[in-house]
Structures are given as structure tokens and as C-alpha cells.
Amino acid sequence: MKILTAAQTRQADAATLLAEGITSAELMERAATAFCHWLQKRLPAHSQRPMHIFCGPGNNGGDGLAIARQLHEAGYQPQVWTLPAAQPSADFTLNRQRLPAGLPCHEIQPETLPQLPARAVVVDALFGTGLSRPLTGAAAMLVKHLNQSEATVVAVDMPSGLLTDAPQSPDSLVVRAHYTVSFELPKLAFLLPQNAEFVGQWEVLPIHLDPTFIHNAPVDNYFVNDNFIRGRLPARNKFSHKGTFGHALLLAGSRGKIGASVLAAKACLRGGVGLLTVRTPAVGYPIMQVAAPEAMALADSATDFVTELPDLKPYAAVGIGPGLGQEHATCEVLRQLLRKTKVPLVLDADALNLLGANPSLLKLLPRESLLTPHPKEFERLVGKPARDDYHRLEQLRTFVREHGCYCVLKGAYTTLAAPDGTLYFNSTGNPGMATGGSGDVLTGLLLALRADKRLSPLDAALLGLYAHGRAGDQAAQQTGEAGLVAGDLIRFIGPVLQELTTPLPGL
């Protein structure tokens, strides 16, 4: 699913009007109908909760007026409030004229802002994607008033004051919505942690914008949902064998952190790898043999940490990092691996910390390597903190272009950056996955998929991210988010991959 810029969203609207031969007011009516259906499912007319719809002078306000009319016709009793404006948009004016006589509509006066009881429902239709500067004057006073109330706030398309694809100035006033109901495609602003307090829970409703325009629109941001990921994992051939799905090598574990290597190994096995060898320090050898008997354990001569790189010839992919430690000898193993390997690499945890602490290693990074940092590890890799979430995304694009690698920035809406700078935001996962070992499971799963030569590097990474989050979602249904542990994810990897496997075509 593509993520359009604010400008492209306006172009998509215009393309739809041209392709269908309809007016902008008719498209506005379509959006209002979708919003009202969404609201009616959650708030029946007989609930009698006070409802206030706040409308700005532009097309977002026009949406709000159309929503008010439709809700009034459905038996609701909303009150409409409009911001004073010398030149409201044409569609605002048209929808203002369409309001029935029995629907109260008031112009907002800063000295007499409406009282909003705690039970009230507020529909924010003040400003949408066209906003390009901070709110001032009466609009700013109103937003401050809404944020101080205890009413439930539902934003139409965008919370007013929030920019679609650019950072806010620190002193900007933005509506703090509990829900944001947007249209057709998600907005970049919805996916960034710094905007969570404004966006709340968000949902995108289809209004059938021109599919040809959307298909042809050049973008560098995508939202990875079920439809986007389907068709990327081929079914297994009846005559497949272990070699078909690759022999992976995992270098992981150190004294006190053998559990990380066990989690990664089990996830790799459940991810469908043909064979798995785990290079572990001697202290981890008996643990690995018992915890993951399906894997071959290759003990290092050192007791507490990995000091030797095995022969790489047998392997289709190599993963390194979970629980590895940052000893000097381990750093040299990583250096040798970067110099010698000719197969795909997956790097996580301490392997990333070693890269960050030794910039010379980054110069050895093979093309199309896959790195999986969390934000702090990524900061160490690039050498400086980000000013905000938008800046971090630009750092991410710069990093992958410079090093020709894939990079997974972990968190809510985990982001995969491809070597050309394209970003893919993952839709699956939940806060219960913010637990120790979850990243080790991801590393093992990605290693299995990178060892599968049927998959491109991009498809392997996308499938791994999506399946990892989906496994977490299924696990949370049984354990609850608070009770979720990393090992729970592993049990659901196989079923999730089965769901995603492309079936044979029907007759």
C-alpha cells in the first residue's frame, strides 16, 4: 500500500474527479458517508451523547459540514461550530448552504467557546492535509480548548494542526485525537512515535480514489499490510529437500546470554530453514544440544564467547549478533566474516554494537547485508542522534544508500529501508512484543528466509517483518500483551508462514 505525500493526495482527488466525471462536492459526500458509517457502528443515535462538530473554512471543514448533515438525517443531534473566515472554500460554502434549518450552526467566538462535557463526542474537521503552517489566532485558541476538555475527539482525515509529512515546530498546537479516521491510504504522520499523542487510534476508509493515479504515483514510502505481502512466499515443491531451503550459520551467544542464541535458533528452524548450524561458545554447547536438537551445535574453543570463524563454504546465509558479546576476539570474528563471506548476512544486537564502535568495519559491510537495529543501536551506527522521527527516517535512507544494505529499524511500525532508500512500514505487531528476546526471534526468522534462495532479499525481509509481527499478534490473543514473552512468538511462526504461502491456482 503506497503512502502518498500531501501534494499527491490532492492530485489523487483531482484525478478521481477527472476520471469519474464528478464534482469535488460529490467526492466530499463520499468521504462523509464513509466517516458516518464508521461512527454509526460505534455510537448509535439513541446514545444521546452530546456531539459537537468543529469545521474550518477549507475542504476539511466542508467534510465536517457534510458529516453533520448526514448524521442529522440519521437521527443524531449534533451542534456545528465554524471558524470565522473571509474567504471559505467553495465546497465549504456549498455544504454550509445544504445544512437543514433544524441543525444548529454557530460561528466560533474566542470569548465564548462552547462547553464540552466529559461525555461529549467532538468531531475535529478544522484543518486537513492542506495545512502547511502552525495554527494561530482563533484556531489555536479552539484547539487548546479542545485539548483541555475531557471529550472524546475524532479527527476527520488528520488531527488539526498536524502536518502530513513534515515535523511540527515545537510550539505548534495540534488536536489530541482519540481516533483519526482517514481516507483511502495511510499518512506518513500516523506511523511516527512523536505523533502518537495526536493521532490516537487510526483507521483508513476506502473512498475509491482513482486507482490508475495511485498505481502510477512515484513514492518512496509503503505500508506493508496483508494485501501487500501476499504472493511473496511460494509454496514448497513436492520434491524439495533440505538443500532447497538453505543451510544457515548462526554465530551467537556468550556466557549469561546463551538464551538469545537459543531463541534465534528456534525461530530460524520454525522459519523453514533446511539446515542450521549454531556457532556457540563452549559454555553454550550442551544448552543448544538440549534446547534445539534440530540444530547442529558447533562449539568454539573458547568457553565464554565466540573467538573463531568456521569455514563458510557450506552455508547459504549467516546470522550474527544475538547475545554475542563485544569481546576483542569476537570483534575480530566479525571482521573476518565481513571480509570473507560471499553469502547474505543478517546482523543484530552486539554485531551492530561492534559496527558502531568500530567504523572501519562498516566499510567492509557486504552489499545487501540485512541489519536489524533498534533506535539506540541505529544511533550508534550513524554516530549521532536524530532531531526527530522525520530526521531519523532521512538518516535511515542515507545510511542504506551509502552502504548498499537493507536496514530494519525496530519499533512500532518497524521500518525496512531498501538500498535505494525506499521505506516499508510494517503493519503487524503489538506493544507486548516490547520484551527481551523478541529481536533475537526476528533475527532467526530473517536468517531462515535469507537462506531460502527462492526469495529476493527484499521479499525475505518483508516476509520476516510481517510474519514476526503477525506471530506476536496471534500470541497476544492467548497470553495478553503484558504476559507475552519472546518464546511465545516462535510457536506461531509456522502457522503464520503457512497463511502467507501462495496457494496453487484454482481451476
TrEMBL record:
Top-level taxon in the UniProt lineage: Bacteria
Reaction equations catalysed: (6R)-NADPHX = (6S)-NADPHX; (6R)-NADHX = (6S)-NADHX; (6S)-NADHX + ADP = AMP + phosphate + NADH + H(+); (6S)-NADPHX + ADP = AMP + phosphate + NADPH + H(+)
Domain YjeF C-terminal: 225-500
Transmembrane segments: none
Residue positions binding K(+): N60, D124, S160
Record PROSITE patterns: YJEF_C_2 (PS01050), YJEF_C_3 (PS51383), YJEF_N (PS51385)
Its EC number(s): 4.2.1.136, 5.1.99.6
Cofactor binding description: Binds 1 potassium ion per subunit.
Cofactor or coenzyme needed: K(+); Mg(2+)
Binding site residues for AMP: K410, G411, A412, Y413, T414, G439
Binding site for (6S)-NADPHX: 59-63, 128-134, 157, 260, 323, 374, 440
YjeF N-terminal domain span: 9-215
Pfam families in the record: Carb_kinase (PF01256), YjeF_N (PF03853)
Keyword list, A-Z: ATP-binding, Isomerase, Lyase, Metal-binding, Multifunctional enzyme, NAD, NADP, Nucleotide-binding, Potassium
UniProt cross-references to HAMAP family, sorted A to Z: NADHX_dehydratase (MF_01965), NADHX_epimerase (MF_01966)
Protein role: Catalyzes the epimerization of the S- and R-forms of NAD(P)HX, a damaged form of NAD(P)H that is a result of enzymatic or heat-dependent hydration. This is a prerequisite for the S-specific NAD(P)H-hydrate dehydratase to allow the repair of both epimers of NAD(P)HX. Bifunctional enzyme that catalyzes the epimerization of the S- and R-forms of NAD(P)HX and the dehydration of the S-form of NAD(P)HX at the expense of ADP, which is converted to AMP. This allows the repair of both epimers of NAD(P)HX, a damaged form of NAD(P)H that is a result of enzymatic or heat-dependent hydration.
Assembly and oligomerization: Homotetramer.
Family: Belongs to the NnrD/CARKD family.
Protein name (database record): Bifunctional NAD(P)H-hydrate repair enzyme
Provenance organism: Hymenobacter sublimis
Taxonomic path: Bacteria, Pseudomonadati, Bacteroidota, Cytophagia, Cytophagales
